[in-house]
Please model this.
Amino acid sequence: MIPSDIRTIRSVPKFTTVSNHVLTFALAGQPNVGKSTIFNMLTGLKQHVGNWPGKTVEQKSGMCHHDGLEIQIVDLPGTYSLTANSPEERIARDFIIKASPDVVVVIVNAAALERDLYLISELLWLPSPLVVGLNMMDVASQQGFQIEPHVLEAALNVPVVPMSASRGQGVLELLETAIRMAEQKHLPNPKRPEIREDHKSVLEELVVRVYSITPEPYPPEWVALKLLEGDREITQLIQDRMGADWQQVHDILIQHEDAILAIASGRYEWIGRMMRAGVTKPKAGQVALTDKIDRFATHPVWGLLILFAVLGFTFSLTFTIGVPIQNWLDALIVQSGSTWAAVLLSGSPAWLQGLVIHGLIAGVGTVLTLLPILVIFFAAMGLLEDLGYMARAAFVMDRFMHSMGLHGKSFLPLFMGFGCNVPAVMGARIIEDPKARLATILITPLVPCTARLAVLAFMAPIFFGNSAILVSWGLVGLSLLTLLALGVVFHELLLGGEHKAFIMELPLYHLPNRRTILQSVSIRGIDFLRTAGSVILVMSVVLWALSSFPGGTIHTSYLAGIGRLLAPVGSWMGLDWRMMVALLSSFVRKENTIPTLAILFAAGDQNMSLASVLPGSMTNAAALAFLTVQILFIPCLATLASIRQETGSWRWTIIDFFLILAVSLVAGVLVYQIASLFI
Amino acid sequence: MLESLLEKLRDGGTYSLADLARDYDVSQSQMEQMVLHLVRLGYLKSTAGCTASHCPGCSIKSACSAKAPVQLWSYSSQDQSSVKE
Model:
């Protein structure tokens, strides 16, 4: 008895009745391989368009006449495999099995052959003869593929017809080959993928068990294979027909649940063999270059060294070009500005002169002089991003982090963190596991953001001159090492050492686009100017007020009072209270360190730049300790708010705050004590 | 081949498609197919959290330095156990 679902498929499509005079060819293939072009060329206007029975998937069939033969062409829906995961896949395989076309013509894209071979590997198990239309040979040739159709044909033991349907090449040969196949009585056995030896015997056992109950026209061997693959439709079909005997088959399937991987593996190994036999692809310039560079750029050891070299070069470029311009702007904006303001405000109240000269010009003016340094830094980062290097930097760092047990996806927050810690904390949302997400959020503030790097870029040359690059490089390295160390701690505490794997597709390297880099620089530059004109302006006024009242001098001010509370901690690092206040002010915005120092050291008043005042106020060991604390210091207010929002926990926010505070201060003290021995 | 790939991923770590393709002597495109196959089988998860197509609607794009579209896949023992169920 024929099951009802088979009758449906066999009876409804008008053209599927096979007679002595009409051949039926099914056109199979993945989407976008040129199947429709071939169908249209073969059938012309003689087409019938409708829906497949019971489905909303379009059914196209048409008639073709060649050498007195009448051929019905059925265009099957585009499918990637025959696993019945989608209506398209179910329709395609049901048609091939149940309607038994005389030939299945599978169209493949020669330029993406390995992708299409998976479908062929499945079609080879079905009873209809197969012809492979190797389409888009012209595209494959343009992309550098050298394909040997005859070698492929021998490897598959199935006819392979090279063609370029869009140019009308090979379509006739395809049709004639299919007709020859349809007329052949004894077809050669195609070379199918094999499955692992231990599963081979199970497959044979299953074939024996299902042979007698497999309904026509299902091939028992294919049914057994699909049972091992866990195909739901076939499993249900066989279960219904076996009744009580199903339990034995079910037990076998449970014992060999890994067969699904073994079968797919066999297919991929087969694809690999076919590709090596019939296809040569001399790597195109961009791909070959990417491969060559990545052998070093993504290497676990070389990659890290290259990353630190790139960072060093970025700092070097920033200092070499940016610092002289910054000095010039400092003379222009802060020093000349203060002089001009003093002249213009000569008759005005003292507090107004103080506000403008010591508050606004010293604060906002000094921050504005950072703009050239930032522009160069942003341009360097934009260049590296557009070049495709930043993805490698994150990959190398992530691999390094992973080796220490951190979560794989943490690379994205890390990546963002170099720009700003706020989106970095928010970016941790991509990590589904709550504990892994929490671990990533808690360590993200240790990624040195642009603002911290800008302060570093401003202050390092003041104290360390030609050694500034080395100092900056070392401090960024220290910051990342601290991040890793804390990551390991959080990983062990929160995740109990669970390991995850992570695969990443790296973009190709390409020539940077000038517009993209300019856009990136302008977006970040404007954002910086906005900050200077809002938060930093307000902070400058507040800091000036706190440093001027009460008493009119800085030593009697509120700020001095706060600073003196912090002075004992500062003394462990050789820092006076003014430096501690500068650190404290960075809690609002990291850039605030600069205007705070400018106000506290009264750079504008003495017609001297901050750069000339600072070196005399502390030792180099203390300056190194200050920069160490500054780069590791507590996250800014906005980042802390993001941590609270993303973790939903005040407890973790406070723990993170005090942990990072403690780490930064301990690191500062250690650096000062050790550096005092040498410098 | 897929079993061996899963075995490798079971130990954790970060890999690029190019690295894996080299290790298994297949093209990068085939390795991508294998990874996608493992995604379909439920052994790996595709992480479409941050790709170029997400950028236009993203509120933090101006501050984000992850401009390059990246495709990520992850493996975890939890995913593995859910497949077996």
Observations:
- Confidence is low (pLDDT under 50) at residues 62-69, 78-85 of chain B.
- The CA atoms of residues 35 and 56 of chain B lie 27 Å apart.
